[in-house]
Design brief:
Elements lengths: L1 E6 L2 E6 H18 L4 H11 L4 H25 L5 H24 L2 H19 L4
Antiparallel strand pairs: 1-2
């Protein structure tokens, strides 16, 4: 089953079954382990679904926002929440969320992908204890 979206005059064909199953699995795993999901949602949308980075970045953030909101509420209800840590990180996250898209818009999409690959590689190496 496919969905067609038009963005900036370009039409994209998306397999919504693959997208929904992938997004669901990413949301479950990210809420279990506490990472935002972006490191997996972006490759799903860019590589598997074939969307360009200028669509992927904003769309993945919106999708992850709702998953993160639900996960945060559940972790809060379970007592897994540190208010002091939140108060330190929240302003920085807001500022970075405002600045990041401005920088990305000025960069060549290929460079945005390259930066994402380097970041994901470092994250993966860190998660397995190599870096």
């Amino acid at each position: 089953m496919y969905m067609y979206i038009t963005f900036w005059g370009h039409e994209f064909k998306i397999n919504i079954v693959v997208g929904c199953i992938g997004a669901f699995l990413i949301a479950v795993v990210s809420s279990m382990f506490g990472f935002g999901g972006g490191p997996f949602m972006v490759p799903l949308m860019a590589v598997v679904l074939g969307l360009p980075m200028y669509v992927v970045v904003g769309s993945s953030l919106l999708a992850i926002f709702f998953s993160t909101l639900m996960s945060t509420a559940k972790h809060y209800s379970l007592g897994n929440f540190d208010l002091d840590l939140f108060l330190v990180m929240f302003p920085a996250a807001l500022l970075a969320g405002w600045i990041g898209p401005k920088i990305a818009k000025k960069l060549n999409p290929l460079w945005v992908k390259r930066v994402a690959v380097v970041g994901l590689t470092l994250l993966g190496l860190s998660l397995i204890g190599i870096f």
